[in-house]
Design a protein that fits this description.
- The complex is a heterodimer of chains A (273) and B (543).
- Chain A has one domain: Phosphatase 2c, domain 1, CATH 3.60.40.
- Chain A is built from eight helices and twelve strands.
- Chain A has helices spanning 2-11, 73-91, 98-118, 166-172, 178-182, 222-225, 230-237, 242-255, and strands at residues 21-23, 27-36, 46-53, 60-68, 126-135, 138-144, 148-153, 156-159, 203-204, 209-210, 216-220, 262-271.
- In chain A, strands 3, 4, 5, 6, 9 and 10 form a six-stranded antiparallel β-sheet that branches.
- In chain A, β7 and β8 (156-159) form a beta hairpin.
- Chain A starts with a helix and ends with a strand.
- In chain B, the strands form six sheets. Chain B has a six-stranded antiparallel β-sheet with strand order 1-2-3-4-8-7, with helices on one face. In chain B, strands 9-11-12 form a three-stranded antiparallel β-sheet. Chain B has a two-stranded antiparallel ribbon with strand order 5-6.
- Chain B is extended, with a radius of gyration of 43 Å.
- Helix content of chain B is 24%, strand content 16%.
- The chains are: A alpha+beta (273), B alpha+beta (543).
- β2 of chain A pairs parallel with β16 of chain B, so a sheet runs across the interface.
Chain lengths: 273, 543
């Protein structure tokens, strides 16, 4: 037994050190935003914002939030989330740190929760939120809910965030497939949202990831995802300017039904020249 | 000793042996082909260096083992080849840039590479790698260094697989610090210190390698190139392009290396440490170490540069000082547990502030508003009858149904899935063939007639089933009276089901699994074979 524990202890040590990480400095971020009320809703409960630095084109913060709740509570919630997160990161000194985003999200959660408690008719109000911060060649994201962050790199599209929905959990346990999840009647049920609970768990990238020239980042609310498939999204994003891509995405979502609010932010990392 | 035949030289260790394939000294197999992009074995550079195997690959280039043909000794040659910018064509030696922009960046890097060589050439220290020569070739440049036979610190630690004691760690690192001190005195910083870059010659004598990231401490960064750093060993200021580097940057990396050597745990990535530092104090991980030692290591690992020792001498002194007075009561300098902070973090010391970390973000105001807030109409999809919405100005040709994803203009034809239609086609084909077979001239064949005839006339006497014992009650020619509705109707017989008829095996062939009796066998009074098929005969009063 003694030998075994000794063996177990020694096995954990001195694994190979990580490969060196290349952080590029020579890039610019070009961005476009688009939001649409959709064909059926009375108001737009999505909120989105992009903050750019006037001195440094390599820094940016993109936030998308999808609110829910009756009596315009959804609008209030999402706007509040976006402004709190933006303000928290603006005041901060440290960029591209997952912790900054975590504290920002928690602050937003507190504020919305307090508001809901004070205003009885807004009980149950909440919002999803996904934020992407890019600075100094590093990026990191914070995420709660079912808004999504995708990245296209080297012709591959990858969903960086994991949905906090019931169907996503079912998929993880292998109960249903991805196609079944798309058309599942309960796909709108969230397991995590800002404002509904005093405590939340915020998803972040484990560590800031280095960005590359040619990366395309897409933040979108579920209004887009429900209506447009991944392949169609990739086609519209590659080789298009962010503005064109945004227009194409929103129009495609509206053409395919568009019953929910649709919001997208497209960021493209380009060479400085 | 002069080498007569270059083929006798082993490409793995540059020792002379006349063996066929595997070298007895180092185990290198002559027949293993080198990987792509590297120079082939026995390439001659600068008319005096014979290239051997690859010693290592870094971010910026490849290091080869080589043989100095003039001085008859082994050397290490580093080739500048940043793989993201350039590549090498197959079977050619010259390197080619991927694009014109890459070419510009490559040329700039080449100048830096030359600068690295010039930097190193200034040092003559036992613990700093020695430069012998530098020459251009193949559109790039080569740096010739002394070859040290030994292992890197990382390999040493992995092979030993045991944490080092304080004495062992200091024995290795104090000479390195000495060499590093010389480098700093000349105004240079290494900026990439980690176990992979410390080489142990003969397991005792350490040498500091790979000055690829080294820069003059006073140079301005006019062109912002990519930064290459190793997470865990690089302090936070290395992640930023505009911060000022001081000797404390290297001191952090050395302290991180020592931390790793004595605890086996890699330090946390610097970006994770800025708020609510998760890194465990060395006193907690290794209580056996002397308090002065651990204190000085953790001080050198401070997140903010100004809190660390500012010179190598200071750091060395702290490490080796034996505390005269009794040590102060043990106080944990770091927060023991993570508490979610609801207040904004306090502003940091001026070092990072001057690095221009403070953002001045302002929101962008050009959101594209889609035309969805306009009018819309409903229509019902002709294929699946789902209610859909169509925007003003759009025609049916532009839209697709949300459920079945088909355009309304598409002709409504029932789309059969491929598999089902194939199955149906196969069944039809089989039936057709069977029909033709039965009604073709095969039937008129006398032998076939003799075989098939009895079957068709309910005899059952020629059944191939080996276990079959025809019950005596069944007369070959007469139609069975007890079957009734269990089988397809016999002509002339009324379709009457006996009261206790079991229909479990109705229509099944003799060879099917019997529901009532398993394994299948015909039981007298229960199973009866009629027309080549089995029927379950009830055992009620009918009998």
């Amino acid at each position: 037994m003694h030998l075994f524990t000794l063996l177990a202890k020694t096995l954990k040590r001195f694994k190979t050190t990580d490969q060196p990480m290349t952080i590029i400095q020579d890039y610019v971020i070009s961005v476009a935003l688009a939001s649409d009320i959709g064909c059926q809703r009375q108001n737009n409960e999505d909120a989105l914002q992009y903050l750019a630095s006037s001195t440094d084109p390599r820094t940016g913060l993109a936030i998308v939030a999808d609110g829910m709740g009756g009596h315009k509570a959804g609008e209030v919630a999402s706007q509040e989330a976006v402004s709190v997160i933006a303000r928290h990161c603006q005041d901060g000194y440290f960029l591209t740190l997952p912790q900054t985003l975590v504290t920002a999200f928690q602050e937003a959660n507190q504020k919305i929760n307090n508001y809901a408690n004070e205003h009885f008719e807004c009980r149950g109000m909440g919002t999803t939120a996904t934020a992407l911060m890019i600075s100094n060649g590093l990026g990191c994201y914070g995420h709660v809910g079912d808004t999504r962050l995708y990245r296209i790199r080297d012709g591959q599209m990858e969903q960086l965030t994991q949905d906090h929905t019931l169907v996503a959990q079912m998929q993880e346990y292998g109960m249903i497939t991805k196609e079944q999840a798309r058309i599942h009647p309960k796909k709108n049920i969230l397991t995590n949202a800002l404002g509904t609970n005093p405590d939340i768990l915020v998803d972040t990238s484990d560590a800031p990831f280095p960005i590359r020239i040619g990366d395309i980042y897409l933040l979108c609310s579920d209004g887009l995802v429900d209506k447009v498939t991944d392949e169609e999204m990739m086609l519209m994003l590659t080789d298009n300017s962010p503005e064109q891509a945004c227009k194409l995405l929103v129009d495609a979502a509206l053409d395919n039904g568009g019953n929910d609010n649709i919001s997208v932010i497209v960021l493209v990392i380009q060479n400085k020249h | 000793m002069v080498i007569k035949d270059l083929d006798d030289l082993c490409m793995g260790c540059m020792s002379i042996n006349k063996t066929a394939s595997v070298c007895p000294e180092c185990g290198f197999d002559k027949n293993t082909p080198p990987s792509a992009f590297v120079l082939p074995y026995q390439t001659i550079l600068n008319k005096k260096f014979l290239i051997g195997r690859v010693l290592g690959k870094g971010g910026f280039g490849i290091t080869y083992l080589a043989w100095d043909l003039v001085l008859q000794t082994a050397v290490a040659i580093k080739e500048y080849m940043p793989s993201t910018l350039v590549g090498r064509e197959n079977k050619r030696l010259a390197i080619v840039a991927h694009s014109p922009e890459d070419q510009t960046e490559f040329e700039y890097g080449l100048k830096q590479f030359l600068q690295e060589a010039r930097t190193l050439a200034q040092f003559s220290h036992a613990n700093v790698v020695r430069v012998r020569e530098f020459f251009p070739a193949n559109n790039t440049a080569y740096l010739v260094m002394d070859y040290y036979r030994g292992v890197s610190l990382q390999q040493f630690l992995q092979q030993k697989n045991q944490k080092l004691t304080e004495e062992e760690a200091l024995k290795i690192m104090l000479p390195v610090l000495n060499g590093l001190g010389q480098v700093h005195k000349k105004g240079f910083l290494h900026r990439d210190i980690k176990p992979d870059n410390i080489y142990l010659v003969d397991k005792e004598h350490p040498v500091l390698l790979d000055f690829g990231a080294a820069r003059s401490a006073f140079s301005q960064k006019s062109l912002s190139l990519s930064v290459i750093l190793t997470p865990g060993f690089a302090p936070f200021e290395q992640y930023l392009s505009r911060s000022h580097f001081t000797p404390s940057t290297d001191i952090y990396s050395v302290a991180a290396t020592i931390y790793y050597m004595v605890s086996g745990v890699k330090p946390h990535e610097a970006t994770a440490r800025l708020q609510n530092d998760p890194m465990k104090h060395l006193e907690v991980l290794e209580p056996g170490l002397s308090p002065q030692f651990t204190k000085s290591i953790m001080l050198a690992l401070e997140v903010y540069p100004e809190k660390r020792p500012q010179t190598i001498e200071e750091f060395e002194k702290q490490l080796t000082e034996k505390a005269a007075a009794p040590p102060p009561p043990f106080v944990m300098p770091h927060a023991p547990a993570y508490k979610p902070a609801h207040k904004a973090a306090p502003p940091p010391p001026s070092s990072l502030e001057s690095a221009g970390l403070q953002l001045d973000l302002a929101p962008l105001d050009n959101t594209y508003q889609g035309a969805g807030s306009g009018k819309y109409e409903t229509y019902y999809c002709p294929h699946c009858q789902t209610k859909n919405l169509i925007r003003e100005g759009k025609t049916f040709a532009d839209v697709k149904c949300i459920k079945c994803r088909r355009s309304p203009n598409e002709k409504t034809k029932k789309r059969l899935p491929l598999v089902t239609s194939l199955k149906i086609g196969a069944v039809i084909l089989v039936l057709l063939v069977a029909y033709r077979f039965i009604t073709s001239e095969v039937l008129t064949n006398p032998t076939v007639q003799s075989l098939v005839g009895p079957l068709l006339s309910d005899s059952g006497g020629n059944s191939p089933a080996p276990y079959y014992n025809p019950p005596e009650t069944v007369r070959p020619s007469a139609p069975p009276t007890r079957v009734g509705q269990l089988l397809p109707p016999v002509e002339g017989l009324p379709r009457v089901a006996p009261p206790f008829a079991i229909t479990a095996c109705e229509g099944k062939s003799v060879h099917d699994k019997c529901v009532a009796n398993s394994p299948r066998r015909t039981l007298a009074g229960i199973c009866e074979e009629v027309r080549g098929r089995l029927a379950c005969i009830p055992s009620g009063p009918d009998h």
